[in-house]
Structure formats: structure tokens, C-alpha cells
Amino acid sequence: MTAPSRLRVDGLTVRFHLSGATVQAVTDARFEVRQGECLALVGESGCGKSVMAHALLGLLPGNAEVTGSAWLESGDGAPIGRSPLLARSADNLVPRSPTALAASGSLPPVDLVAAPEEVLARSVRGRRIGLVPQSPATHLTPVRTARSQLEEALRELGNPASADDLAARAGLRPADLDRYPHELSGGMAQRVANALALAGDPWLILADEPTSGLDRPLVDATMAELRRLADDGRAVLLITHDLRAAEQVADRVAVMYASRVVSVTPAAAFFAGPRHPYAAGLLDALPSRRFAPIPGRPPELTRLPDGCAFLPRCDRASAACERVPELAELPEPPAPQGSGGRVAPVPDRQEVACHHPLEPLEHPLELDRNAAR
Amino acid sequence: MLRADGVTVAYDRHRVLDRVTISVPPGEVTGLAGPSGCGKSSLARVLALLLRPAAGTVSVDGEEVRRWRHRAAPALRTTIALIFQQPRLAVDPRFTLLDVVAEPLRVARRPLDRAERLAEEMGLTPDLLTRRPHEVSDGQLQRACVARALTLRPRYVICDEMTTMLDASTQALLVARLEEYRRESGAGVLAISHDTELLDRWCGPGSTVHRFGPAEPGPGQADATGGTWTRT
User: Fold this and answer.
1) A51 and A9 in contact (C-beta within 8 Å)?
2) Cα B136 to Cα A84: distance, rounded to the nearest angstrom
3) Would an 8 Å CB–CB cutoff place A294 in contact with chain B?
């Protein structure tokens, strides 16, 4: 039994038409994010991760052509195990507003690709999808206090909760809200951004490189916050290039390479022994592992090869790789689940798009990884 | 030897560096670790002659620096290269990537033909070199910035959070390229990062890693003054 899915992306494809070239930014992406789970989407810079995020929010520029579907589910009534908004704030439990309920509870499922901008603006962005931005300090308006920005978001989204309650939920003191963004530390700015993302009580949290440029303690705090949101019953899609951040919080890991999702696997299995050769290479490049770059370079998104895009960099390639491999479930029994006693209601199957996937644990397993810390 | 001696930097009344001393010997990697806001980047700017300290001295190969920024002697300025954290803020958005790599040659009035080869060594294809910053990824842009930094063959390279924005594979690649340059040229490298795991790997045995104090000193805590240890 797994938790219901909140976001189902199927065949999502994004093309940018430039003069004289077409950028294949996202190709035939398929994955889902379930209630209560954090799915990390990782990959090299320029692989299409951020375009995916913008496509889901309907924020792509005019020269983008988007096909496929991305269904944001309605949830069919009360979400399971979901604590109401502000349930954890000290004394006064603020009930969810009728508008918030309508926005998140009883609306029909919406296809983010097909929905008109009007629907996305009125009932999706901020209400059903909350964005945790890259670089929170620049995300905030520099000339207004955190409180004024938070109150505006609450008012616009029809949420009767007070800014103080929401701030407390995000780990801020009321006094912190009276500061301007330049007076906030990086960690506090991040918390203000989180509070803003939660103002509409969304189910799906989209975190787009939330840790870029942060130091380790701030990364840890941000990841702990995302984990808390998932444990609260929200679905979290974390887009990041930071594998160590992903390891801290993810239930499952999706890997993107050259516009395609090439692997979706449980996080524990991924970090113990990834099955896709590219994923293995990416992990091997970490300073804590071999610290060796993947040979070669990723292909240009304007001229992707007909076959597997990783072929020229892969030491397992064969003639079969001239054909693009489908994302398919691996037949082998899955690796044991669970890291640190965290039980996530997610499927444990491993899907990999590769004609020659690595065997389980064939990849050099670094069992002393935790001991070394 | 590139050396800062007793350097103090303050913005308004907020002191970010308090009598910090650090040496970057040629041919070696020196590490500098510390959390956000502890003054790492300020020290990088002081060592790159871009920021005049309120107190203390900087010397390059024994010669004390007396003029800063654009007033510094050109020969001295090209001796030291600085690689920034955010490549997008470090390049002219109107330049092509080839312009970016060739800029130091142009300023120094030297032939531009070296630029293409340097860019190629960084894995930038001729096609990429015709593009402008908004048409490439952070990783591709940072490769151009590293190529630019090495164009005039500096004797000291300061890498200020060079790979924070980048994925693991690009990070490993850029560090490998810097190491190759250091070994081949005998340049001194100052590797600045909040990531101690990276510095542990980058700075080999025998290297010095300096560690700065907390970013936001609480009441009763001193400002960052720095401590040093030598890896064995």
C-alpha cells in the first residue's frame, strides 16, 4: 500500500524554438510525487531540471512548446495523516479558510500543461503548489519588511491565519518579521521564503535549487524543513544538483540527463548502489568518493543523438545503445528500504532507462560513508 | 608567496576580518574554510587587490602592495587571478564565451589566439564559444571563467567558492583542471569553500587549511579571527 500520488508527470516534453535551432530541454519525462514523500530530481547543470520546474508552474517563456501531461491531483477529500495548517503553532489552531479548502481540497484534478494561465494563476500557483526558491534573499522584495510580504501573500491567498502564526510555523520569531531582507541572515531569509511558500497551504512543494550557495548548516536546516513538510503530508519535489542535500531528505531520487529522466529509484538503493551508469558516475564525482569527473561532456540540447545520450561517455555501451532506452522497471528484487528508520509510503521499484544497467551493489559500495562523517 | 598580514576589514562598523594573517605559497594549495558570512570572500578580494584593508598589509612575492584596484600595477594585477562563486555575476552578459575567455588578452594587448585553445582545454566546444551567458548553463559559464582566470598564466589563483553552484561532476572537473595548472606552472592556489569535505580532498597531505570562525557571532563571541591547522 502506497500513498496516493499528488503529481503525475507523463510524457512531459519541452522544446524551445530559437532561430535556427530547437532546444530539447525536457524529453518524455515520466514520474510521480506521492503524498508525504520527497522526490529529489538531480543531474548536471544544464540537463533540464529547472525547465521542468518552470514547466510545472506554467512559467516558461513564449517560445516554449510544452506537450504531455502533468496532473495535479485533487486529493479526494481530507488527505491522509495530514495535519491542518498551523496545527503545530503554539496555542491557537487557526482553521483552514473556506477558500483554502476550496483551493486545495475539492477542486478537480488539473493538468498543469493544458490548464490556461488564468487557472494556474488563480488556483494553482501559491495555492496548490508552493515554490521554495533558489536564493531566498533575492526572492524577497528588498524594500519591504518580511511581515508586509507575508501579510500580502496571506491576504491574496485568502488565508485568515496571521503572519506571526505562519512565521512561528517556519521557525521565526515575530520580531524577525519586522526586518527588511538585507537585515536577515541567509537562514532567516530561507525561513521567510518557506513561510511564503506555505501561505496558501499548498500540497505540493516545489523546491528549485533551494540550497544553492548556502553553507552546510543552512543546507541541513533547509533540508530538515523540507522533510518536515513531507512528513506533514505534503508532496515535495526537490530539484537540486547537491547530492548530499538530496541524500538527507529524499525518499526517492530521479536522475535527469540530457533532457530525459533516466532513473527513478528509492533513495537508499540509489546511494548504496545506483543502477544507471550516469548516476553511478555522478556519485563517484563526490569529494567523499572518487572525486573523478565523468569523462567527456554532456551533449548539446540543440543536437541530441538519436540513441542513448550518455553513450559517448559510458563504458558499458554496446550496439544496443544506438536505440534510446525506455525508462523501465528493473526485474531484480529491490534493495532493502529505509534509511535512519524513516518509513516512506512510496513504491520501492527501481526504474532505469539503460540497456546495460549496473547490477545491484556492483558499483563500489561505500559502506563506511556514514562512519567517515 | 602571496601574503596578507594582520588584515582588518570592516563594512561600516561591522568588522568581518580582524587582524587575519594568511600565506599562499607558490606551488601549493592552501585551503580556507568557514561558514557563510565569516569573511572568506572579503579576504579573497583583499588578496586579489580588489579591496583595500582598513589595517594590515598584503605582499606579493615579498613586495608590499601600496596601490589597490585599478591603481595597482598591471603586472601585479595579472599575477593574481580570482575565480568567483557566481559566474553569471562575473561576466559581461553581452560577451560571447570566447570574448569572456579572451578578455584578459585583449586588455593586455596580446594576441587572442590562445583563448580558443584554453577554452578547449576546459571542454568548451567552438559552438559553445559563440554563445552568450544566458544561453549556457552555470557549469559551462564557470568553465569559461576558469579559462579566463588562467589566460595570463597567473602565479596565484584564488578560487572563492568556485564550485558551490555546480554539480559533482563539473566540480571534480574544474578542481582537476586547477590542479593540473598548479602542477604544471608552479602557481599557488587558495581554495576557499564552506565545504570541508571538498577542501579535505582538494588540499592534499601537508597542505595548510585555515578555518574561520562563526558567521554571525553571538553575544560574547569574538569576530572571526581565524585559526589554522596543517593537514598531516
Assistant:
1) no
2) 43
3) yes
Same domain, B52 and B105: no
Single residue among B108, B135, B153 that ends a domain in this structure: B153
Chain B within 8 Å of A285 (Cβ-Cβ)?
A: yes
Asked if the Cβ–Cβ distance from B197 to A241 is below 8 Å, we say no
User: Is the distance from CB of A198 to CB of A94 less than 8 angstroms?
Assistant: no
What residues of chain A lie within 8 A of the CB of B198, using their CB?
Answer: 287
C-beta atoms surrounding A70 within 10 Å: 24
- How far A242 CA lies from chain B's nearest CA (Å)? 6
Asked whether residue B125 is assigned to any structural domain, the reply reads yes
My answer on whether B59 and B114 are in the same domain is no
**CATH number for the domain including B163?**
3.40.50.300
Whole-angstrom Cα distance, residue B15 to residue A47?
A: 41
Residue B130 lies in a domain: yes
ipTM of the prediction: 0.83
Q: Which of B128, B164, B215 sits opposite A213 (nearest CB)?
A: B164
- Rounded to whole angstroms, what are the CA distances from B105 to B91, B143, B149, B184? 15, 17, 11, 21
Exposed / middle / buried, residue A185 (Cβ in 10 Å: 0-12, 13-18, 19+) = middle
Which residue range is the domain that position B106 belongs to?
90-153
A243: contact with B, CB 8 A cutoff: yes
With respect to residue B110, please indicate whether it lies within any of the assigned structural domains: yes
Task: Give yes or no: residues B164 and B147 share one domain.
Answer: no
State whether B73 and B32 are in the same domain: yes
Exposure pattern of A324-339 as b/e (b: 16+ CB <10 Å)?
Answer: bbebeebeeebbeeeb
User: A46 touching B, CB under 8 A?
Assistant: yes
- Specify the 3-state DSSP secondary structure of A7: strand
Verify that B180 and B118 share a domain, yes or no.
Answer: no
Angstroms from B108 CA to nearest CA on chain A: 31
Strands in B156-160's sheet, in edge-to-edge order, are B80-83, B156-160, B188-193, B29-33, B208-211, B227-230
Q: Which residues of B touch A46 (CB under 8 A)?
A: 136-140
Whether residue B148 is found in the same domain as residue B186:
no
Chain B residues whose C-beta sits inside 8 Å of any chain A C-beta: 35-37, 85-86, 123, 125, 127-128, 136-140, 161, 164-173, 175-176, 194-198, 200-202, 215-216
pLDDT in single tens digits along all 232 residues of chain B: 999 999 999 887 778 888 889 999 999 999 998 877 778 889 999 999 999 999 999 999 999 999 999 899 888 989 999 999 889 889 999 999 999 999 999 998 999 988 999 999 888 988 889 999 988 888 899 999 999 999 999 999 999 999 988 899 999 999 999 999 999 999 999 999 988 889 999 998 888 888 876 544 433 333 344 444 444 3
